[in-house]
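Saturday, quiet lab. Running sequence design on the structure tokens for the scaffold JK sent over.
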């Protein structure tokens, strides 16, 4: 499962919040992602541009 960390405050989430990508979809060239917070309580639906601008992909040891 892909994991991301928020680079800076975005909407009602604070910098450093960790997310899981739970769904990806593409319709006529527009990608949308559904992310859930690490505790799975809150959901965020964003497009590919917002994902690239506001989030950092986490790999390996960065997950903690």
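Result came back. Writing it out in full:
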């Amino acid at each position: 499962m892909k994991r991301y960390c928020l680079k800076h405050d975005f909407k009602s989430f604070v910098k450093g919040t960790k997310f899981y990508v739970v769904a990806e979809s593409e319709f006529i060239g527009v990608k949308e992602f559904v992310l859930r917070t690490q505790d799975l309580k809150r959901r965020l639906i964003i497009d590919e541009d917002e994902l690239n601008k506001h989030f950092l992909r986490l790999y390996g040891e960065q997950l903690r």
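Notes for JK: Helices lie at 48-54. The mean pLDDT is 91. Ask whether to fix the surface positions before the next round.
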